From TrEMBL:
<dbReference type="InterPro" id="IPR050483">
    <property type="entry name" value="CoA-transferase_III_domain"/>
</dbReference>
<keyword id="KW-0808">Transferase</keyword>
<dbReference type="Pfam" id="PF02515">
    <property type="entry name" value="CoA_transf_3"/>
</dbReference>
<protein>
    <submittedName>
        <fullName>CoA transferase</fullName>
    </submittedName>
</protein>
<dbReference type="InterPro" id="IPR023606">
    <property type="entry name" value="CoA-Trfase_III_dom_1_sf"/>
</dbReference>
<dbReference type="InterPro" id="IPR044855">
    <property type="entry name" value="CoA-Trfase_III_dom3_sf"/>
</dbReference>
<dbReference type="InterPro" id="IPR003673">
    <property type="entry name" value="CoA-Trfase_fam_III"/>
</dbReference>
<dbReference type="GO" id="GO:0008410">
    <property type="term" value="F:CoA-transferase activity"/>
</dbReference>
Amino acid sequence: MSGPLSHIKVLDLSRVLAAPWAAQNLADLGADVIKVERPVKGDDSRAFAPPFLKDTEGNVTRESAYYCAANRGKRSITVDLSKPEGQQLVRDLAREVDVILENYKVGDLARYGLGYEDIKAINPAIIYCSVTGFGQTGPEKDRPGYDFMAQGMGGLMSVTGERDDLPGGGPQRVGVPIIDLTTGMYASIAICAALANRAVTGKGQWIDVSLLDSCVAFLANQAMNYFATGESPKAIGNAHPNIVPYQTFKTSDGALILACGNDNLFNKFCEVADCMHLAKDPLYSTNGARVKNREAITALLNEIFLTRTTREWVKLLDQAGVANGPINTVAQVFEEPQVLARGMKIELPHAVAGKVSLVGSPMKFSETPIVHEVPPPALGQHTDEILTKVLKKTTEQVAALKAQGIV
């Protein structure tokens, strides 16, 4: 393996998305990630389908596309954690790794002798990351949590979507499970920070990351808008609460995003759009004035954008150095020359489907480049390999574990 974490070993006891996403990030960075799954059923997300992958002959497999989104770069072993022998296998694996990721409900793994204190006793340097809906403390720590719940409870849905008084208005969740993904990213950062600290101190630690905390942190400028004014921000569709114009506009044949992040960009826009009178008007000459007079300036710009096609606007604005862009479908994303040039679509061989198309990592390194080599595993694909090569089990011992339904 290559990558900046190629010296790190990870035990992934998680399922679905938030924690598996973090483990996938570590795998992308070169870590050796062993994913522990339930026998027969595996990770819950293996059942989040259709769609399923198709094999080289076009036949539908039982490999869900959802599972593949968060599990590339990992090896899969099946272990029954409800049995003492299965719990011992995980403890044995825990002795061999640097990081453990889990997203069981608070206290669940401790019942199996696999909680942080249990693992710390056999591997004092372990970095143990727990991902839950509400965290390890607080009055709601025992509640199950999902992305959708966190988006609502954490306030994100209240600022997402069209204005309440317009058609289609009302709270909306983001079109991808953004809080699962954000929580996974926070967990990834925390793990890397803990590894850096351990390199200096020699000490491991327990990391506590939750969906709700991550959503609250993700409110960012909207939270600060509330702190500054005492008023809860509201959904305003594709507009920006603090910058104007920073939104979508209809063109003569479609739509376009215009992002004037400062007054200089607004002036450049006005030059190419032949509306310099707006840049000189005190009502619109500064961002603060435009935010105050949002509806009026938006109405004027709506009329201007209808005079040209999307392609014509993109060409003009690009030449002027004004940030803009089309609104692509997912299919169009993977036709974008820049997306393809950056290696954001990759293809790897797959044990069941023959090959699988995946989204590549966005992280680029000059000295320790990421190399995608390991596809999302089939359920239990590496059980024998891990038992014999990592835990040094004999062929007879592996056969016995299988006969007992432990793996």
